[in-house]
Structures
1.
Amino acid sequence: MSIGCVMCDCVNRGGVYIHVAVCRSKCIYCDFYSEVCHSGFDWERYVKTLVAELELRSCGLSAMREVSLYIGGGTPSLMPVGLLRFLVSEARRIIMSAGSGDVRLTEVTLEVNPDDVTAGNADVWLDAGINRVSMGVQSMNDKELRSIGRRHDAKKVMEAYGILRQRFGNLSLDLMFGLPGQTLESLSSTLDVFTELHPEHISAYSLMYEERTALTRLRDLGRIKETDENLSVAMFEMVNERLRKAGYMRYEISNYALPSFESRHNSAYWEGVPYVGVGPSAHSFDGRRCRRWNISDIRAYMLAVENGEKCHEEEMLSDKEITEERIMTGLRTAKGIDIVRFENDFGKAARVELLDKAASMLGEGYLKLDYNRLSLTDKGVMLSDDIIVDLF
């Protein structure tokens, strides 16, 4: 069977991701590509290169009518505010001019570190067109923050949140559980603060020990002890229950939102919506079969773009890979996999095979099937990776 454009039925939606691959210091758990920013870093050259690449990629924006823009990293809030204003302005110009009809920029997100939030910076971000801010908090316990190499403390989080709350109507905070030394009691205290602040969106992640990170090296040396699996499950259950009681809906494995405040940009990734990524290591997807990723080297990336040379690799997904991606991305969301659409796109045999593989997990309570939608239960979320692989 030959599969056409089945990843997404939202052909007018799209996203643009801009990767600011610089940090003041590296968190010990982070495996995203970034480099430590020294005083001599050429911000102007870097921003001009990002704009130049987006201009070159504008043909990939031509079908988009509702577009989200996400400036992530790294630490984008380190960028001099004048250059941030220029970057957003140029991105808006390119996005608007790429389409042949009416184009709407629906969501413009900036990731920030609490240490970089000042009244002056926030005023410029707002004036530049940022309408959603995502702040990396992780914990409100200073000892836990130090254990993972964060450069802010709980007091700074409160100051930063107050500044942002006065200016922005859509805020997202990051929370992590399973941190070294974290207990259910300390996590509960952090949740107390989060629910009291009541941001529109909360991303809650279990600490992961990724290869080649400082965190994993410290664990392997015996200097950090990984959180017990049963404790991690109990922490997830606490996060899930506390946020539900506070009015948040878990719409994706790690993401919770107040009604109508789901992240448009991140939702696009899970729904197979096309997106264009610019910057070193940024990824893109055409909504059909083609995935591409830029080289993970700032200097080589800038030289390549400036010289008009190739700075990316790409792959064409096979029919099997497209089917597996639908399973993986569908099960990440609370809505799950639409079984009727799955059969329409991949055939009756694929639907039968999927449900046959799911049967035992349905019986054990890890999956549920309601109104032709197959989704993870709360019990299944903590085993999501294993469940998804078993359904391939």
Note: The first strand starts at residue 13 and ends at 20.
2.
Amino acid sequence: DTAVLFRVTLLQQFFGLSDPQAEQDIHDRSSYQTFLGITADTDIPDETTICRFRSVLVKKGWDKMFFAEVEHQLHEHGIIVTTGKSVDATISEVPKGRKREDGTSTRDTEASFTKKNNRSYHGYKGHLSTDTKGKFIQKVFTSTAKDHDSIHENKVLDGHETAVFEDSAYINREKKKRFRKNKIFYGVVERAVRGHPLSSSQKKRNRKLSAVRCRVEHPFAEMKCRMRFHLRYRGLRKADWQFTMAAAAYNLKRFIGQLLPAQAQAVVWRG
């Protein structure tokens, strides 16, 4: 059943399950079976079926549709999202591969290398924007890891923002002038350069901006720590699919938390 398979996909996003893990855990956990609306006597989807269903979702772009549907439900239930946005990006690593005897490599050719804090990374980069409270993800975009954070800034903004908060990687003088001309608050943390340390007023402003900007890190922390997000599939399109689905699943979890107190949430997830 399509509804069962889609709920399996959601379980994979909520708990960071691979296809074999999902099949095994559904067999073992009655809570998962209740969420899926099946029993142990039912034909539980095997890992091949789950993989084939995901391929259809990727091909048809249903990850974008699901993300949009969750956003639609947020508006339908009166969840207020501010017009200000916080923007950031995170690196998601994938295996570097190995060389075969014939000279070819198993490396994902669409992934790329980048360096951060003197450490080399190989993989992709997930970009997102949230409301200024960091509660809900507004837009997502996936790129290869070598792309600078600021290149894809417009992919996660819609042009209707009244304020934008970002870290120093996004600083740009032309953008600063453009934002101020369009009466958009330019909440980008400034950084010192050689021979030009930050003034006390700049440091004070940075602290105020950071108190707002830091909330964009909360979705990343939730996805990587509690939802155990890491990229499992090869290619940019599949990486984008997984990042978008994880972001939609994160919003859905937040959505339930906003609607109901903690004591009632377990009943919802079982239903």
Note: The chain has a mean pLDDT of 89.
